[in-house]
DNA sequence: TAAGTGTATTAAGTGATATAATACACTTAA
DNA sequence: TTAAGTGTATTATATCACTTAATACACTTA
């Protein structure tokens, strides 16, 4: 899986998910991890599209979702910038995490696993010694 | 969200995911949780389709995947039965769980969370009243 | 003015999903 | 033997999400 570096971020696309979702997730991840600084400019729609060899409309879709989440601010004619408001970043981080946790626990419960065993499986997966 | 009882199992379909995936997941969950006994017969393709008001081909697709996973055995002319081999059920249970755990941890890591905080968030989520 | 921004529109193609209508081989029970 | 109920296969059709393509427009900056 080829990894492409654009504007301080790394992208790696495949066919497992919609392209716009992958772009969205990878930018969001870069922001959450602090790999790209608050207030920084991210690549233009056209630049990123060209680098990733996908259509500008597809990049647009990802960028629009980022702005809806208030993770970015767009200035017409200038470009798209990461928000400078760290509170907004944190809010999104926890909101997305909360959803992931909910889905995870729901899935495990659906498989008949309960708290102690879920914790045990998590520890095993991390390579930790168990109980 | 309407809940429909068919052949000892409960089904609840919506538009958030493909129908065949929802049917597949809900039968798998019933088996994993032991809500339906090993060796039991599950509803016929036509019966389930009629009860859920979906196309028989859609049910077929779910049933074929269940058989590929060896969670069910089909006897031509008779019907579809839950496997009697508890080892197979457990294998699938842990395989699916492992995938869920991997995806969950990967998502949380992508958001910049590490082990201690992930555990903390899990504890918080369980302390809340949900569902 | 020219180049680079974000944004909008229209058109087209592809693939997954779902439905519909039929048909066939098999099993069971009447 | 027959009829009804199984799983299974096939073909056709429709819809929708996703993606690409080609333009066009308004704005900002150098």
UniProtKB/TrEMBL annotation, chains A, B:
Residues 17-85 form the HTH gntR-type domain. It comes from the Bacteria. CDD domains: WHTH_GntR (cd07377). InterPro entries: Tscrpt_reg_HTH_GntR, WH-like_DNA-bd_sf, WH_DNA-bd_sf. Gene3D superfamilies: Winged helix-like DNA-binding domain superfamily/Winged helix DNA-binding domain. It holds the Pfam family GntR. One of its GO terms (molecular function) is DNA binding. Keywords: DNA-binding, Transcription, Transcription regulation. This is GntR family transcriptional regulator.
């Amino acid at each position: 899986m080829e990894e492409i570096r654009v504007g301080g971020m790394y992208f790696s696309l495949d066919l497992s998910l919609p392209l716009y979702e992958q772009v969205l997730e990878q930018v969001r991840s870069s922001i959450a991890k602090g790999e790209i600084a608050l207030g920084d400019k991210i690549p233009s729609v056209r630049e990123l599209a060209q680098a990733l060899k996908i259509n500008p409309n597809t990049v647009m879709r990802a960028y629009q979702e980022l702005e809806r989440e208030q993770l970015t601010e767009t200035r017409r004619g200038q470009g798209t910038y990461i928000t400078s408001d760290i509170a907004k970043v944190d809010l999104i981080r926890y909101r997305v995490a909360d959803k992931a946790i909910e889905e995870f626990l729901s899935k495990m419960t659906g498989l008949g696993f309960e708290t102690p065993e879920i914790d045990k499986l998590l520890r095993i997966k991390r390579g930790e010694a168990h109980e």
